[in-house]
Amino acid sequence: MKTESIQQIKAALTTVDTRDDERIKLWQADERNGVQQALAQWDRKIQRHEKAVALLEEMQQFENQARTQGHRLIVGIDEVGRGPLAGPVVAAAVILPEKFQLLGVNDSKKLSAKKRDELYDEIQNQAISIGIGMVDHNKIDEINIYQASKLAMGIALEDLCFIPDYLLIDAMKLDVNIPQESLIKGDARSVSIAAASIVAKVIRDRLMEDYAKMYPGYGFENNAGYGTKEHLIGLETQGICTIHRKTFAPIKDMC
Question: RNase H type-2 domain location, by residue (predicted)?
Fold first, then answer.
């Protein structure tokens, strides 16, 4: 039998997604360095895939448990934007299908902007329903950031196309007559909450990029309103702008 070239083996490996493929054993017996390097690279890719599959299964445990209790429309709810000095707090409520298999969904803070954008598009395509809630800087100053976050979550819940029968919420309880579970660090433990965190983060970041054009000099396109060095220098040189939260330090001392 004619020996495969290293390039042929590399090309073939791109189509192999299981260790059970009979060709793997044949290639493992090939002593050429290029083949062994290609196999090592392939193995690392498979390990990453297996790790992602295991993480998804682990993050579906709360949804699966709710389904064993008879619940079907299970929504994950999370908010983004408690800490920034400017801009709104944004919440998302996401109902995922039971057979949701999108790998890589995790706490939005653990993902790159590029990965969040990719997952955001897929979540939009696959979700049963997505609701968005937004509370602006004025309301935050009026009722405080905790109450504003809670309000944004409630608005997101009401924005859904369907009424859910179970809520999974990131570290919050909502005043609604629907069974619910509050999970500390829920965006890293529940796939539905993680999906909500990604949706809320992408929407808020894009909004802050728009605000950066309206209010240049604070670096909103880079910091999303958080108190970075660039933002603080902007405050020193320009003072506050319309969307700054006047009850947050150091802004409250500048008003």
Answer: 72-255
For the entire predicted model, the pTM comes to: 0.91
Q: What is the pLDDT along the chain (255 residues), one digit of tens a residue?
A: 458 898 988 898 988 888 888 888 889 888 889 989 989 898 898 899 899 999 999 999 999 999 999 999 999 999 999 999 999 999 999 999 999 999 999 999 999 999 999 999 999 999 999 999 999 999 999 999 999 999 999 999 999 999 999 999 999 999 999 999 999 999 999 999 999 999 999 999 999 999 999 999 999 999 999 999 999 999 999 999 999 999 999 999 998
Sort 74 into a burial class: Cβ within 10 Å, 0-12 / 13-18 / 19+: buried
Please give the Cα distance from 147 to 154 (Å, whole number): 10
Q: According to the annotation, is 170 in a ligand binding site? A: yes
* Of 102, 90, 106, 163, nearest in space to 127 by CA: 102
Tell whether residue 4 is among the known ligand binding residues.
no
CATH number of this structure's domain 61-200, picked from the four choices 2.60.120.10, 3.30.1360.170, 3.40.309.10, 3.30.420.10:
3.30.420.10
175 is in an annotated binding site: no
| Beta partners for residue 89, in sequence order | 135
The structural domains of the chain, with segments of one domain joined by +, span 6-59, 61-200
Given a contact cutoff of 8 angstroms between Cβ atoms, the answer to whether 166 and 180 are in contact is yes
